[in-house]
Amino acid sequence: MIAKDIPTAQLGLGLIKYQRGRYLLNVLTWASIWVMPMIPALITKAFFDRITGEATAGFNVPTLVMFVVVYAVGRIAVMFLGMWNDAHLMFRIGTLMRRNMLERIFELPGAQSMKESPGEAISRFRDDVDENVESFSWTVDMIGLFVFSGLAVWILVGIDGTLTALVFGPSVAVVYLAAIARHRIRRYREASRHATGRITEALGETFGSVQAIKVAGAEPSMIAHFRMLNDRRRVAAIKDKVLTAMLESLFWNTINVGTGIILIVAAGAMRTGEFTVGEFAVFVYFLGFVTDAGFFLGLFIARYQQASVSFGRMVELMGDAPPMRLVKPISLHLTGDLEAPDVVPPHLAPLEVLEVRDLTFHYPDTDDGIEDVSFAVPAGSFTVITGRVGAGKTTLLRAILGLVEPQRGDVLWNDEVVEQPAEFFIPPRSAYTPQVPRLFSMTLMENLLMGRRDPETEVKDAVASAVMEPDVENMPEGLATLVGPMGVRLSGGQIQRSATARMFVRRPDLLVFDDVSSALDVETERVLWERLFRERSGVTSLVVSHRHPALQRANQIVVMHQGRVAAIGRLNDLLATSPEFRALWEGEEG
């Protein structure tokens, strides 16, 4: 649930400032659509007064009919312009919020970018943005409503002040009903959105774990889990919908009761001669529009509360960023040629030494992580980080690369502190393959290049270095083969070697592998390291591994134990001096 107070009005104003030209045009067109009914109201009054003989001067009946036709054509044209502009405006507003959320997620440390599941995040990108876009569009109607109400009051007061008060009186009751229901509206909308997010979260996790579910024979229990989540979502959604429908009913009925009273009073005034037929026609004509205005006002108040919930969920997705970051103005490049993407400038000097000093990171509310880790990686060396499960190996790599934000310590590149590791440790400085690499539902070539335009010969060289060429030769379309969502059409070893080839294409100074050989057989791993040393001998490698082929080739080995460095040295030295490493070596050998 949303804990922080969300400046809904300020966020809405930020969206208005971002598209002030289109918003102003929207205000003019839709305010005109609200105000234009004043014209047929006056024509109606003149028409009835003319045919009843209560007015002898002015336009004749055919002329008044012609004015109605001209008014209808003009209103259609204004509505067409309003709808065209409204579609463009709302698309830009929604795209801006989605773009700013995505940018913020990319800015956060990679391993800490989102607390929410992908399914829950999708719900916020889709449902909450759409909710706010819809609510934002209603602000234009509210401006038109107030302009219309002001002019209507001015015209009707000139006819009968008491009856005018009766006409607009029900709107006060509508506002009161919406105000007393605002807390319940927020609570029900939060519950509905949260329950929907749980469903999308479960769907995403299930689609990504089909094989595990089938192997475990867990299909019935998963279906039961979905049924339970869907029942909760249904209850929450029904409460939300029923409350909205009840409010709509109360708004309409309150106004309809008021309308009935007004008609009775007006009919009595006509019998006494206080009202002309034209004046009565004006009041009856305005009743419909005033009814709509009151209804829209009540719903807008309700939607404002729902928009606050959606704004809060989107801001929460952005971590500790200020709320106004959600509506930060920026060009969306919707027309014209796209700008060339930013290219990371090459570092001024090649890597001479990578140094880690007192690096410390603990996961929130736990003692798990790393503590005071220090070591150096000389240029051209092959450094292996090893240790038991849970020793902090992966966390150490993440802390070095800026994928988590350390509480203490520094990482130095050539004796210079790296201030922003997440922005620094990217190609051409470094490339990283995580323990579980990710491929996208594209061709293998597209997965390797990720938007780059390297020659195909260089891509093939990278594929060969990653011991992937026999697999590519056996694929139906070679590098143009579609790998499926998350690389589902490839084996675990092929996915890891594809990710390794993706690193090699970028030719970085520093290669960072997180247990890349875990899904490889011994012979394939031996060939992988052999080709790395032969074909990319100048590159520096930082590798997490417990396998003998990697440990035997290491220039230095960093042994981790319970988040700390237990020993550093070469293979033979560690076998002689480190009981922790000796246990690891013998355990792997066994």
Q: What is the domain total for the residues?
A: 2
Major sheet: size, sense and barrel closure?
6 strands, mixed
Strand order of the biggest β-sheet: 6-7-8-3-9-10
How widely separated are the two ends? 50 Å
Structural class: alpha/beta
Shape: elongated
Give the second-level CATH assignment, the architecture of the largest domain: Up-down Bundle
The CATH topology of the largest domain comes to: ABC transporter transmembrane region fold
The CATH fourth-level homologous superfamily of the largest domain: ABC transporter type 1, transmembrane domain
Strand content: 5-15%
Q: How are helices and strands ordered from N to C?
A: HHHHHHHHHHEEEHEEHEHHHHEHEHEEHH
Number of strands: 10
Helical content, roughly?
55-70%
